[in-house]
Design goal:
The protein is mainly β. It is built from 1 helix and 15 strands.
Length: 197
């Protein structure tokens, strides 16, 4: 691909990202009336970094590929809660004050080997970041531990069907909890995320 075509593709990807991240007017997420005093903040690393163009990451692989998408739904309100996909070793904790009205959350673990998820309602921006947790015991970890990160993708077409790579538009640093063997990262808005290095 020529340099000019690559620049045009990168500009298109950023435009798609910005359109996908726009706030959904039907998401019903408004400012809280008072800050939550009882929330314990996770000591997670930096938030999302918009990288200005797409980057290719090496996806973390599941030990057992999912034969089909696995979707889980839950209604979570201002008091917070957790939604999980046990078949994928994944959960998301919604802290108190992230939303101010009851909101129907859905998490879809994508079929195949890549550790990737889609979230709804698409475009929702949260007032407090959510804590995503991936159990690493169900994944194929490298002998030499690489630095894991989460990557934002606007559409699952950005994921390789052969599990060789994923195109992402944001990088989110996280942390590994060695005691629980889990990888955590913050989610500030909904769309798709993949765990990779």
């Amino acid at each position: 691909m020529s340099h000019t075509k690559m620049k045009a593709a990168a500009k298109l990807a950023v435009a798609v990202l910005l359109a996908a991240c726009s706030t959904d007017p039907t998401a019903h997420v408004t400012s809280p009336s008072a800050p939550a005093a009882s929330v314990v903040e996770q000591p997670l690393a930096v938030g999302p970094t918009l990288i200005g163009a797409v980057a290719t990451l090496q996806p973390l692989q599941r030990k057992q590929p999912l034969p089909h998408d696995v979707r889980v739904e839950a209604t979570i309100g201002p008091d917070g809660g957790t939604i999980g996909v046990p078949a994928a070793g994944f959960s998301v904790t919604v802290p108190q004050g992230a939303v101010t009205v009851d909101t129907r959350f859905s998490v879809t673990a994508l079929r195949g080997s890549q550790v990737a998820y889609e979230f709804e309602p698409h475009g929702t921006v949260f007032l407090r970041p959510l804590d995503a947790a991936q159990d690493l015991r169900v994944t194929r970890q490298l002998l030499v531990r690489a630095t894991l990160k989460a990557g934002y993708f606007a559409d699952r077409q950005q994921l390789s069907a052969t599990s060789l790579g994923a195109l992402v538009s944001e990088l989110i640093a996280g942390r590994v909890d060695p005691r629980r063997n889990t990888f955590h990262w913050n989610i500030e808005h909904f769309s798709g995320y993949i765990v990779a290095w």
